[in-house]
Fold this sequence. Notes:
By secondary structure, the protein is mainly α. 58% of the residues lie in helices and 4% in strands. It has two domains: 3-115, no CATH class; 134-302, Intergrase catalytic core (hpI Integrase, Chain A, Orthogonal Bundle). The protein has 15 helices and five strands. The chain has a three-stranded antiparallel sheet, with no helix packed on it. Strands 4-5 form a two-stranded antiparallel sheet. Helix 3 crosses helix 5 and helix 12 runs antiparallel to helix 13 (280-287). The longest helix is centred in the first third of the chain and has 20 residues, at 84-103. The N and C termini lie far apart (66 Å). The relative contact order is 0.09.
Amino acid sequence: MTNLDKSQAVNKYIQFLESDEDDPVTLYLEGLAITGRRSMRSLLHKASDVFGFEGELTKMPWPLLQYQHIAKLRAELQNEGKAANTINLSIAACRGVMKACFNLGLIKADQLMLINEVKRVRGKKLPSGRKLLEREIKALIGVCKRDKTIAGRRDLAVVTLMLSTGLRRSEVVSLNIDDYNSRNGELTVKAGKGNKQRLVFIQVDARQLIKPWLNCRGKSAGQFFYPINNKIAIIQRQMTTQSLYDLIKKRSVDAGINHCSPHDLRRTFVTRLLESGIDINTVRQLAGHSDIQTTARYDLRDDREQRRAMKQNFMLI
């Protein structure tokens, strides 16, 4: 692309931004699940730094990006020692914005095609996060049980629900009281990833731990969980995913266990099912995963399981 072509492309993009049309960055990000937008925006910010652009993401002249820029991004992130998954997500984010540019008529098909030719980075990292030990689960539930305030009852219900269903924190805060059938334990998850709904089942023992919170909350329509002010006053609005993260962090400290996140409760749910011998496809469905490979990454069984499998195999010979 000549300097004249670049100048014309920049002017065209500036004129486009001054119109009422959505910019390609916004168009791309709004097409993602709400839970993934912040991380992808962060990756795009990093990419713009590598490209040498300073300013708002939406003001960057994205239509000027070529194959060599995406290749440079890949090489730069590799030199920084970034994980393969981070590099590939960064490339995917840039491709997403460039596809939006194409859909908006800002670039031609051959430019997008060349950008898509940049190869992914191969690599495999060890599973992130952790599975809670049985004593940690008991400690976490126990510390909530001992707190007789409304906050204690709500937190007990949150911890119990996440350990017994493996819900994502975005799914937990989006639950409505009408999504739950207290008679048979059916819970309809309507805010699943990719707007997919699924049905999960809460067992009797778990229902008993959730019941004290529902008694405090009452039967009025609204969210399943509410924020609580000073441990005593229910505020009738939706909790945020950050407040749920802080809740789990605080209770893990109170319980005297190693740091755990809401997603560690989800990893614990998946791993315990696999340890119980449930087939991985059933676990995939219960966890709300589209791809069975995603479920496999949640498998945090230790090497004792591998030794047991090898021993069983040896006994068959």
